[in-house]
Structures are given as structure tokens and as C-alpha cells.
Write a structure and sequence with these properties.
The protein is 17% helix and 35% strand. It has 178 residues and is an alpha+beta fold. 25% of the residues are buried. Residues 156-178 have low confidence and may be disordered.
């Protein structure tokens, strides 16, 4: 079952891995912001086909896979999670599929407020081009996450940070992780 929930961010200082939820929002608010959500559980063999079909239908040619964990990132873990949390946007829409772990996408609404979207394994989000956002793993998974991002071409970030250890792969049939 999806972990997807939406909240207004409380904007209080503190560990960004904490919920920071000031009030719950209806999930329908995401569609009004142009954000699409699919729940594709990894245990369902059809999920991999659906991800590939979605990528093909939207003409996505590249993917990157990021594992966020102290063991995968070593001494750069703290710097990297802070980098993911920096506000940025993309010139193209972003598709993010959560293999494992859970976390928060924060997106700016039309009133310039942060809407916090809680995601977990099997959630696939499509963020529209030009929406300001940031990401943080949550505290519940010992700061771990394994994510697939689909990209139309090369990534075109509108900020100066680069993901350390980002791996680009040409579009290929997505097999079961493992």
C-alpha cells in the first residue's frame, strides 16, 4: 500500500528527515499542482512493464539510479543529503520511482508554500517542469533510499549542485532490482 500523504510544511528549523507536517492536505491537491502519482508495487511483475511503458510514452531516454545511505555514500553522505534538500527545479518534468525506503518531496505551491509529499516503496511521482522542489529521506528507514529517476534527455538542473555518484544509463528494459 502506498505511503503517499501530503502536508503543509511547518517551516520550522530542525532535522529535515522529520515529518515537519503542520496540516494534512487532500491528495487531490497534487493533481491541481500538476503532480501525477502512480502506485506500482515492486512485488507486481507488471510494475516494471508499466514504468517502461510510461518512459516510452513520454519519450524518456535516460535514467539514473541513486542509493542514499551512509554505506553507499561514505563520508559524503551528510553533504549529499543536504544537496538533495536544496531547492531546485528542472526544465523538464521529473519522474521518480521509489524502489526502497521512504522520504519527502517538498514542492512549492502557487502561494509559495512548501507542500510536503511523503513517498515510499512503489510510489512513482511525476513532477511538472519548472516546479521548485527538494527531497529528503525520512528518519524511519535509517536514512536509506533507492530511487530511479527517468529523464527525457540529459538532466538540465537549474542550480549549481551536481549529484555525486550519479550514474546515467540509456533507456533499457527495467528488470527487478536486486
Amino acid at each position: 500500500m502506498t505511503a503517499l500523504k501530503a502536508f503543509l510544511h511547518d517551516n520550522l528549523q530542525g532535522d529535515p528527515r522529520h515529518p515537519h507536517a503542520s496540516s494534512t492536505l487532500p491528495i487531490s491537491i497534487l493533481a491541481k499542482m500538476g503532480i501525477l502519482h502512480y502506485y506500482l508495487p515492486l512485488s507486481a511483475p507488471s510494475s516494471y512493464k508499466e514504468v517502461n511503458d510510461l518512459a516510452s510514452a513520454r519519450a524518456y531516454a535516460n535514467r539514473d539510479i541513486i542509493t542514499i545511505s551512509p554505506s553507499a555514500m561514505g563520508c559524503k553522505y551528510d553533504d549529499n543529503i543536504q544537496m538533495f534538500y536544496k531547492e531546485h527545479m528542472h526544465e523538464d518534468e521529473e519522474i521518480r520511482y521509489i524502489f526502497e525506503g521512504s522520504g519527502y518531496f517538498d514542492v512549492r505551491d502557487e502561494e509559495d508554500r512548501w507542500v510536503r509529499i511523503q513517498v515510499g516503496s512503489g510510489d512513482l511521482l511525476i513532477l511538472p517542469a519548472g516546479i521548485y522542489h527538494r527531497f529528503m529521506v525520512d528518519e524511519g528507514d535509517v536514512s536509506f533510499g533507492h530511487f530511479l529517476r527517468l529523464l527525457p534527455n540529459e538532466d538540465r538542473f537549474v542550480h549549481s549542485s551536481l549529484f555525486v555518484g550519479r550514474v546515467f544509463i540509456k533507456l533499457q528494459i527495467l528488470g527487478a532490482p536486486g
